[in-house]
Amino acid sequence: MFYKKPRRKKEETKAVRLHTVDYNGTDYWSSVILNHPATLETMAMDSEAKRELIEDLDMFINSKDYYRRVGRAWKRGYLFYGPPGTGKSSLVAAMANYLKFDAYDLDLRENREFESEARTAEEDKITLSGLLNFIDGLWSSCGDERIIVFTSNHKDPLLLRPGRTDVHLEMSYCSFSGFRTLASNYLKIEDHKLYGVIEELLGNVQATPADVAGELVKSDNADIALQSLIRHLQSKETELDQSQTECSRDN
């Protein structure tokens, strides 16, 4: 995912737009207003990682003179990696909302082909290698500041080359800290008598923030929602115990 900043961050009233490639239209890029509600404050992620990310974004935005002085293109690369449901795409939207950057979304699946009347399938193919060549080349230095964000289910070695991604952030399973953020967002509570049980369960099983949010959204009554989450986590714990027992028998 690309970000390009056509305006100053202080213009808080400006609408953020999401641009996607339109292979069937007259214009190559089409856009809509990005109404994603995610903010950095509401992201269910490690609090220290969140603080470091915000500091890094602020540092980059205020470093135009530094990049010019050292002879580097004014761009910053991020890699968010982790299993599905851990909030990678939501974090991208939260960054766009925080910085008031327009977002340019590209699908980098290596073998995807598109057909249109105006272009051949070969011309329309978007590949990871082609994008990386663009990032590494002279075109990357054109225009104003850019933030380039890659989201992946794993830490792709192709993206680790210096100059491509400067920050590598693992988006992992829901921690107790992340759960507290979700509980505050969904239930408007900061503490509850069931928190101790949930903290222990989250330490034993792997549940994504999407898993946890899916249970909390079932009721605006804190007792009901948290009990539903506990049952869900206990079910995961039972499945894990059964799987480990079967593995022990096989060995």
UniProtKB/TrEMBL annotation:
What the entry lists under SUPFAM superfamilies is as follows: P-loop containing nucleoside triphosphate hydrolases
Q: Which domain of life is it from?
A: Eukaryota
Membrane-crossing residue ranges in chain numbering: none
UniProt-listed InterPro entries: AAA+_ATPase, At3g28540-like_C, ATPase_AAA_core, Mitochondrial_chaperone_BCS1, P-loop_NTPase
Organism name = Ilex paraguariensis
Location of the AAA+ ATPase domain: 74-175
The UniProt entry's sequence similarity note says:
Belongs to the AAA ATPase family. BCS1 subfamily.
Name the chain's protein.
AAA+ ATPase domain-containing protein
Please name the taxonomic classification of the source.
Eukaryota, Viridiplantae, Streptophyta, Embryophyta, Tracheophyta
